[in-house]
């Protein structure tokens, strides 16, 4: 788990968060020069965070919930869902 009053992660290339918790009392900011990939084994909740990717922003999990907070800006959105065998 990565936590604090304000959490900022910035990279010039790709950023991958997998099976982790990133929690802040105030702001969470994830910025990548290319792709941001956030993967959860089960439930994924993104709320009130700044997520900036120059290329793709990908969320993967059994249940994905995104709460934009006060505003949401997008250029192009593609949403897809798939079921896993046996579920």
Automatic annotation (TrEMBL):
<dbReference type="Pfam" id="PF13332">
    <property type="entry name" value="Fil_haemagg_2"/>
</dbReference>
<dbReference type="GO" id="GO:0003824">
    <property type="term" value="F:catalytic activity"/>
</dbReference>
<protein>
    <submittedName>
        <fullName>Uncharacterized protein</fullName>
    </submittedName>
</protein>
<keyword id="KW-0800">Toxin</keyword>
<dbReference type="GO" id="GO:0090729">
    <property type="term" value="F:toxin activity"/>
</dbReference>
<dbReference type="InterPro" id="IPR025157">
    <property type="entry name" value="Hemagglutinin_rpt"/>
</dbReference>
């Amino acid at each position: 788990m990565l936590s604090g009053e304000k959490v900022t992660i910035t990279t010039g290339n790709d950023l991958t968060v997998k099976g982790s918790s990133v929690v802040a009392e105030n702001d969470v900011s994830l910025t990548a020069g290319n792709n941001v990939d956030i993967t959860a084994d089960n439930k994924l909740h993104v709320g009130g965070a700044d997520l900036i990717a120059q290329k793709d922003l990908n969320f993967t999990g059994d249940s994905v919930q995104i709460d934009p907070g006060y505003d949401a800006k997008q250029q192009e959105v593609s949403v897809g869902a798939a079921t896993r065998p046996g579920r």
